[in-house]
Amino acid sequence: MINNTETDENIIETRYRAGAGQETLNIELGLAGDISLSSQSGTSASASPTLSGSSTSTSSVSAITGGTGGSRMACFIGETRIGLSRTKPISEFKELDPVYGFEGKLVRMGQVLHVFEHWVTELLRIEFSNKKALYVRAEHKFFFMGTFAPIGSFGVGDTLWHNHDFSVVTMTDKHLLTFDKPIKVYNLETSLGTYFAEGFPVSNAKLPRGADEEAVF
């Protein structure tokens, strides 16, 4: 059962009931048999996701437990495509995989240092003027106008940078999805501290390297 309620002028909450979790997200993404995304919400996602695809090597994954709806950890759903001209789902990355990142507006090739996975019960579904759609935690920081800001701080009508040329796209829709059952989500730590998610320049997660450092997600 779905209940849509407006929480402010820029975001509509879609609350899933009756034990909703990964199976319901599959429906939302058009992955459950003949049920398409349009039959669920009247919109369409940009990716062609395969949630049953390859899993990340357990030797390179940090399973973060205890984080659900209230988690402050930034992340994307598993089929979010990472990279630029050649992409693959974030759930398929492992340590030492090459990955494009950026320093300022200079695009460079880096490496994956760590893969994080954890479980959440809230995600934003965001759509853009270039027909891209993202399922992401509100805390994840996106790069725009030379600085990083949480995607949750952007609203419908705001612009963000996209692709290797940092062209401008506009946010056209923003929904909060809440689930009764947790959804598995992912983040990366990279050698450049950045990567591209569905073409959007974003910040990475970071494990502490010493007693005086804190984890950054």
Mind explaining what this structure looks like?
This protein is mainly beta. The chain has a single domain (2-36, 55-203), classed as Endonuclease - Pi-scei, Chain A, domain 1, CATH 2.170.16. Helices cover 6% and strands 47% of the residues. It has helices spanning 22-28, 37-41; strands at residues 2-8, 11-16, 61-64, 76-77, 81-83, 87-89, 98-103, 106-128, 133-136, 141-144, 147-150, 159-162, 167-190, 194-197, 200-203. Strands 1, 2, 3, 4, 7, 8, 9, 12 and 13 form a nine-stranded mixed beta sheet that branches. A two-stranded antiparallel ribbon has the order 5-6. Strands 10-11 form a two-stranded antiparallel sheet. The longest helix is centred in the first third of the chain and has 7 residues, at 22-28. It is globular and about 40 Å long. It starts with a strand and ends in a 14-residue tail after the last strand.
Structural category is mainly beta
Q: What is the total domain count?
A: 1
Percentage of β-strand residues: over 45%
Helix-strand sequence: EEHHEEEEEEEEEEEEE
| Name of the CATH first level | Mainly Beta
By CATH, the architecture is named Beta Complex
Helix content: under 10%
Using the alpha-carbon principal axes, give the shape. globular
Sheet having the most strands: 9 strands, mixed
The poorly predicted ranges are 1-13, 16-20, 31-71, 210-214
* Total strand segments: 15
Question: Span between N and C termini?
Answer: 32 Å
At a glance:
The protein is 6% helix and 47% strand. It is mainly beta.
Topology summary:
Elements (H helix, E strand, L loop, with lengths): L1 E7 L2 E6 L5 H7 L8 H5 L19 E4 L11 E2 L3 E3 L3 E3 L8 E6 L2 E23 L4 E4 L4 E4 L2 E4 L8 E4 L4 E24 L3 E4 L2 E4 L14
Parallel strand pairs: 2-13, 3-8
Antiparallel strand pairs: 1-2, 4-13, 5-6, 7-8, 8-9, 8-13, 10-11, 12-13, 14-15
